[in-house]
């Protein structure tokens, strides 16, 4: 999925790029509104992540001009807490959603999936690995016929594992994606959560899905 990010705050732009690329999105960023508008009108993207205050064309003008040209590209606005009027204007101008800074990368990812699903009418709302199934819309998780109750963090951790079965997620990646820490907290936080998740997901099932790759991280596999 190809995403355009128009954001002039370097830190936010790189945080968004890193987070989205880690989830398999292809990301192009620009810090200038004029360049951004040109890209949005001439290249194919699945969604636009749009800041409001920008050098060159501002975010709301970009949005207005896109909609005037009948370009229905899904748009998620990034707004500051104080920009309430801009946020409302943005929604009136045809933004699909907005996020208030600071935000968790998972929130942006969830919204991108939601707006692009709405746009294409397709649904990839179910993740499955072996007999483990996760419904991203209802947030129900089942293993075989058995329902599994997860906390929000456990759900997020399992979702990240299930989105790329067979791929090893490092402790640091898990910290970044599930807790939004861009540092290793140096605690056994991740181990504790994986342990809890394992108890619920693998429990007494003979086929173990969650694997520990010693010294590296964790991954989910269809089982041996
Ligand atoms: Ca800005």
Structure description:
This protein has 224 residues and is of the alpha/beta class. It has 2 domains: 2-119, Response regulator (Rossmann fold, 3-Layer(aba) Sandwich); 126-220, Orthogonal Bundle (Arc Repressor Mutant, subunit A). It is built from 8 helices and 12 strands. Strands 2-1-3-4-5 form a 5-stranded parallel sheet, sandwiched between helices. Strands 6-7-8-9 form a 4-stranded antiparallel sheet, with helices on one face. α1 crosses α5 (105-120) and α6 crosses α7 (171-179). Bound molecules: calcium ion (CA).
Which helices and strands, and how do they pair?
Blueprint: E1 2-6, H1 10-22, E2 26-30, H2 33-42, E3 47-51, H3 59-68, E4 75-79, H4 84-92, E5 97-100, H5 105-120, E6 126-129, E7 132-135, E8 141-143, E9 146-148, H6 152-163, E10 169-170, H7 171-179, H8 189-201, E11 210-213, E12 217-220
Helix pairs in contact: 1-5, 6-7, 6-8
The chain binds calcium ion.
